[in-house]
Design brief:
alpha/beta, TIM Barrel, 8-stranded parallel beta barrel, two-stranded antiparallel ribbon, globular
């Protein structure tokens, strides 16, 4: 199956970008989702020096890994953070990415009432000129209480009405946040899914437990079958977030990446 399959560098949260690149390379992957999430995982970030950003670019080139997307999460409903997100858009363009990933953020007004989807879409539509200028597609991640299902994000993407805005379907977040079955929910939005975080889910729905692919209970063969039937060739990006305690060491992260690579090969994919 010919499809971009990447690893999100956030799998190496708490470790360096050098360690992430090496682990991803050793497992046989050729694409990476660079993480630039303020205060969480800043493997690359707009405030890093030009020299440092060039250094990361060169490391990726030497490893034969293509930075095709960037995890640039900001609260898109917070007007004070939009400037940060635009910087991430420009950073993604610097690395030659085609996609930038973000969740929407919790959409509340002062009296704590939830903002409607039309209003949310209006905020996102203001980013479209920047996406067009830098040749990027924004993929909205299933994340949080209000935007935890593909169905909701699909509705918002349609209201935005731009090919530059699609859904990033996270196969475990829809369980953890949305409390839905991925295959059932995917049927409601597959036409608007432009990107997918492959993430497994173990333990109870509300427990932070996201192991290597094939180690949890997400029906990946079912998900893959639905995508094939729909002719949806969206990129995959593997995300492993372990338990709330985190991985024991770097070796555990590297092994989880390798296990995920082996799982996908067994499903018929070429990395």
């Amino acid at each position: 199956m010919d499809r971009i399959i990447a690893v999100n560098s956030n799998c190496y949260h708490g470790f360096s970008i050098e360690e992430a690149i090496e682990g991803i390379r050793k497992a046989g992957f050729h694409y990476i989702e660079l993480t630039a999430t303020k205060g969480w995982t800043e493997h690359v970030f707009p405030d890093q020096s030009f020299e440092r950003l060039l250094e990361v670019k060169d490391m990726l080139d030497r490893a034969g890994i293509i930075p095709f997307s960037m995890s640039g999460h900001c609260n898109l409903m917070d007007t004070e953070r939009i400037g940060d997100f635009i910087k991430n858009i420009r950073l993604a363009a610097f690395f030659g990415c085609d996609y930038i990933v973000s969740s929407i953020g919790e959409a509340h007004i002062k009296d704590n009432a939830v903002v409607d989807n039309q209003t949310v879409a209006g905020y996102i539509a203001e980013l479209v000129p920047y996406l067009e200028k830098y040749g990027l597609t924004l993929v909205l991640e299933t994340h949080g209480k209000e935007h935890g299902t593909g169905k909701v994000l699909s509705e918002i993407a349609e209201l935005v009405g731009s090919e530059r805005v699609k859904v990033n379907y996270d196969t475990a977040n829809v369980i953890f946040y949305g409390r839905v079955d991925p295959c059932e929910d995917l049927a409601n939005c597959i036409h608007n899914v432009g990107y997918m975080h492959l993430k497994d889910k173990a333990g109870a729905d509300d427990v932070w437990d996201f192991p290597a692919l094939g180690k949890g209970r997400v029906d990946f063969p079912g998900v893959f079958g639905m995508l094939e039937k729909a002719g949806n060739n969206c990129p995959f990006s593997i995300e492993i977030e372990f338990t709330a305690a985190g991985p024991r060491n770097l070796a555990e992260v590297d092994q989880a990446i390798q296990d995920s690579a082996d799982y996908l090969r067994a499903q018929g994919y070429t990395l």
